[in-house]
Amino acid sequence: MKPALLGIGIILAMAGFADAQWITIPWKGIPRTADGKPDMAAPAPRNAEGKPALSGIWRAADGRYLGNIMADEAVPPFQPWAAALYDERVKTLGKDRPSGRCLPHAVPDNMMVRSGPFKIFETPGVVVILFEEFNHFRQIFTDGRPLPEIVTPSWFGYSVGKWEGDTFVAETIGFHDRSWLDNPGHPHSDAMKVTERFRRRDFGHMDITITIDDPKAYTRPWSANAKFDLAADSEILESICENEKDFEHTLP
Question: Which of 140, 184, 210, 243 could form a disulfide with 127 if both were Cys (CB 3.0 to 4.6 A apart)?
Fold first, then answer.
């Protein structure tokens, strides 16, 4: 088998194993159908503010946006350098993908990893997102603070959030340019601003519209409209990336 195909096979096998390893723990106090299964179509629960609760374990409904974050764009609005870099990453099968070196999927693609769910906690003043993959986390501050002047750029940036009706809106800035927006390698710059609009439709389903505004890398803002399913009666587990020991064997 060619090394590139071997690498793809290993990745797919690992994804399947991740799906299979989740434990089953019946959640208390959730709506259920007559056969005892979680009622995914029941009304969304409400938080202490009377807004649709975001808390829970969520997973991408499919792998569409991890495979192409710009799937909703007929003509990708690349700046020339970004188009050239993306083409190079595609030609080399994503050989420099950060996650291949135990570095994070970041914003927004960490939420798109279907084989690695994420858990949202709502607390006074901050919403926390804990990712199963590599056990990374994000904080979205909801105490009314403004976006700061960024001194030290980071993988996940700095996020503030607020409610607009029943939609939770998070704005994030302060990224360095080392992360990828998806597996094939759509790039971004340190000027990127990400706006996420979380809308829980019912008990078992949530939509997140993600808008990328990065004038250094793209000629206009653009969006992805991702869907997520509640991973009810489950729990996230420890996930450790062990020092990229197999990285050299999975590249052509």
Answer: 140
Q: What is the pLDDT of residues 202-213, one digit of tens each?
A: 999 999 999 999
pLDDT digits (tens, 9 = 90+) for 149-180: 988 999 999 999 999 999 999 999 999 999 99
Q: Where are the domains of the chain?
A: 3-249
Distance CA 134, CA 131 (A): 7
Contact (Cβ atoms closer than 8 angstroms) between residue 237 and residue 132: yes
**In whole angstroms, what is the distance from residue 138 CA to residue 160 CA?**
11
Dihedral sign of CA atoms 64, 69, 74, 80 in order: negative
